[in-house]
Design brief:
The chain is an alpha+beta fold. The protein has three domains: 3-166, Alpha-Beta Complex (Adenine-n6-DNA-methyltransferase TaqI, Chain A, domain 2), CATH 3.90.220; 168-221 and 368-433, no CATH class; 222-367, Adenine-n6-DNA-methyltransferase TaqI, Chain A, domain 2. 35% of the residues lie in helices and 20% in strands. The protein is built from ten helices and 25 strands. The strands form nine sheets. It has a four-stranded antiparallel β-sheet with strand order 2-11-7-9, covered by helices on one side. Strands 16-24-21-22 form a four-stranded antiparallel β-sheet. Strands 6-3-10 form a three-stranded mixed β-sheet, with no helix packed on it. A hairpin with a 4-residue loop joins strand 4 (51-52) and strand 5. The two termini are 17 Å apart.
């Protein structure tokens, strides 16, 4: 018996043993409709992108308007108290299967990648929302996923057949009331942590800008285009044929996905064949090179560490600092708000920003003696380290609060404690998530 099902034996004796489907009266696929008529008859179409995932509610404001003819609208119309279940989509870090509560009042349907769930008679919609949140956290949706062509599809028949235990409606409402209050309190703490993290990020930007003399476009130093201050600026190889990628051997290669401001994530490097080495050797990296993302998080820059010397890079800009430019100083400059504004101004692309090498070469950079650059880096490292440590602490606290929230929901809807006597504080110790 799995851990997700074991709790049913421990649930209060007064609770009914059954399956998730006993809590659901009807599950029906949604519709995408057609292009909006823009005559006042269009309805909102809720997608997974419109889920407020932490709160398990619909965010209706950004849901697109679509046209659904009157006869079909009777079939697809969402009613307050319905739930919307994501059936197709998801990803490695965010599996398909999350459900959110629709509270209205705007006339809406859900997309064809989702399903509309109507609670069974005697089932509180908020309680059902929390139940499905607990089931998602326990992995019941993940175990019912069928993946084809990179898209996750939830087998709702398998998922709804999962064993479950549940109380009568009166107790469901008490549990939902308790969780509404306690999760709101936790969400308030998470929001404050997020606000503090944002303030720290702003302070960090200010510290860097002041140290580099880049504040308010009133530069304290002589400026020169980057191309005149470094040894060289090139672009890594662009590889599209699948035959270049190999499972073993070959040369490790960085991609844009591996680079964040000031950080290179090297745990999932691709490897490329050494075939045609004469053509791609020019993009082999040296320790101290600064790689810059061209597509996606355009402009993000990081220094290549010694252990990645000899690796290759795919579609990244490579800046070779030379003897008159300190790599870490250049990293600070390129990740500064000042340089990022230059990237945003010259990047192209409506879906993903793309930054080209020509614009990279023209970025004005402070022209300073090497010794001065190194002093600035030392001072910044000391000041920024404290701010980064505090930011990491707030992020860790936010993660702990999110985990506590999930544990509290699971404990309440599985009967691990009686909400009528629980304060909501320190009552998740010793319970399973």
């Amino acid at each position: 018996m799995t851990a997700a099902v074991h709790w049913i034996q421990q649930a209060p004796d007064r609770w009914t043993r059954g399956r998730l489907k006993n809590l659901i009266a009807k599950a029906a696929n949604g519709t995408w409709g057609s292009d909006p008529a823009e005559d006042g008859s269009d309805v909102r179409c809720v997608r997974a992108a419109d889920f407020d995932r932490p709160r398990r509610r619909v965010r209706i404001d950004n849901a697109p308007l679509r046209r659904v003819d009157a006869s079909s609208l009777r079939q697809y119309l969402l009613r307050p108290g319905d739930l919307i279940l994501e059936k197709s989509g998801g990803g490695e870090k965010q599996p398909v299967g999350m459900a959110v509560l629709f509270e209205g009042p705007e006339k809406s349907v859900c997309s064809n990648f989702c399903a509309r769930l109507s609670p069974a008679a005697g089932v509180d919609p908020r309680f059902l929302t929390y139940v499905l949140a607990a089931a998602y956290g326990q992995g019941l949706t993940q175990s019912a996923i069928k993946q084809t062509t990179g898209i996750q599809n939830l087998d709702t028949g398998t998922f709804f057949s999962s064993l479950w235990a549940y109380p009568r409606q009166e107790e469901q409402c008490r549990i939902a009331d308790f969780l509404d209050a306690e999760t709101a309190r936790i969400d308030g703490l998470v929001t404050r942590r997020r606000e503090m993290t944002d303030l720290l990020a702003l302070k960090r930007e200010r510290v860097v800008e002041l140290a580099l003399g880049l504040e308010h476009d009133s530069h304290a130093h002589d400026m020169a285009p980057l191309k005149y201050l470094v040894e060289g600026i090139t672009v890594g190889i662009v590889i599209t044929p699948a035959k270049w990628y190999v499972e073993s051997g070959g040369t490790p290669a960085l991609r844009g996905l591996n680079v964040r401001p000031g950080v290179i994530e090297d745990s999932d490097l691709v490897r490329i064949s050494d075939e045609g080495d004469a053509e791609n050797v020019k993009s082999r990296l040296r320790a101290g090179d600064v790689v810059v993302v061209r597509t996606g998080q355009a402009g993000a820059a990081a220094v290549v560490p010694p252990h990645l010397a000899g690796a290759n890079c795919i579609d990244l800009i490579v800046v070779r600092p030379g003897r008159s430019m300190a790599p870490r100083y250049l990293e600070y400059v390129l990740n500064s708000q000042y340089a990022q504004a230059h990237v945003s101004e010259h990047a192209v692309g409506s879906i993903q920003a793309h930054f080209n090498i020509g614009s990279m070469k023209k970025i004005p950079v402070p022209s300073l003696p090497l010794a001065r650059q190194e002093r600035i880096v030392k001072a910044l490292d000391e000041r920024v380290a404290g701010l980064d440590a505090l930011k990491d602490k707030f992020q860790q606290q936010g993660q702990m609060l999110a985990e506590r929230r999930q544990a509290l929901i699971t404990a309440a809807v599985t009967g691990q404690f009686d909400v009528s006597t629980a304060s909501g504080r320190n009552n998740t110790e010793g319970i399973s998530a």
